[in-house]
Structure prediction request, 314 residues.
Amino acid sequence: MSVLVYTESWNGSFRKSTFEAVSYANETAKLLGTDVIAVSLGEVSDSELSKLGNYGASKVVSIATIEKGDSQSTTNAIANLANDASAIIFSNTYTAKMIAPRLSVKLKIGAITNVVEIASNTSPFTVKRKAFSTKAIEVATVNSDKAILSISPNSFGLIETGGNCTIETAESSKKGEITIEGQETLSGKVSISEAEIVVSGGRGLKGPENWGMIEELAELLGAATACSKPVADIGWRPHSEHVGQTGKAVTANLYIAIGISGAIQHLAGVNSSKVMVVINTDPEAPFFKAADYGIVGDAFEVVPKMIEEIKKIN
Ligand SMILES: Cc1cc2nc3c(=O)[nH]c(=O)nc-3n(C[C@H](O)[C@H](O)[C@H](O)COP(=O)(O)OP(=O)(O)OC[C@H]3O[C@@H](n4cnc5c(N)ncnc54)[C@H](O)[C@@H]3O)c2cc1C
Prediction:
């Protein structure tokens, strides 16, 4: 028996959430007294693959010959390696959301998403997960001997072991029925779901021409930029920046919300951030109830002052 972990890569590199999933897999393997096998799909160099050893993988199976985004082929490839696995671990990314349910049906193993803690029991697997748009924590148990668990990014953390792993290559056995027509990659931007800091703007910024200060603040802080839903809907910002219940989830260490009212649907996607700072002219804005720090003030005065002060210490 082993613990299998899917290690997602982007342009040949692993992200923090991948190392977090391997760390989680390693802690699960310790509970079961077994080893971690990582599966990597797509072109990834040996030096990058070997980094997985430092988070607890003892072996990496690398399948380079697979089309990224083809969820059927990916599911088949992972299923082929899962025979001996007591648990299959994912980071709860968009890819995991495509693959974990398919795998669950294919292997008849219960899947739990948005997991935030190591299992309190492994027979059967019982874990805490975020529920009701992060408004509650639910204790969930699978009805199968094995479990598929997707870990909410930034909820578990990284645990370096200083270990090494062996690397094996394998071929993708069965092609899926999906053809990828094209993929668009946003380059040079900090990813919202991975970011330590997110600077986010709402309708209070009045128009797309005022986003210069948001971008400048984000750049100074090494942060990702985000926005509320109406801002993306009106076309002031791209939909890739929309955060909230129907957008991307933010689990940053610091979330700075500027000119955003703090509607329940917005909060649902951002309130897992460790510290929330809110800048709003309206002292009654609901966001202040959820904020750790609040500035009642005009964004057009407050943000330039913040930029000025940060430049002094940078
Ligand atoms: C099913 C459903 C799903 C939804 N999903 C999402 C979602 O995923 N994400 C999301 O964001 N919304 C979502 N919404 C919309 C949500 O309900 C709110 O309408 C939206 O979040 C409001 O966006 P906003 O705060 O940018 O705008 P507004 O509500 O218009 O708020 C603007 C804020 O800016 C402040 N302000 C004005 N001028 C300034 C200034 N100069 N300086 C500082 N502050 C200023 C105002 O006081 C106000 O609080 C959803 C709604 C529904 C019904």
About this structure: The chain is about 30% helix and 25% strand. The mean pLDDT is 93.
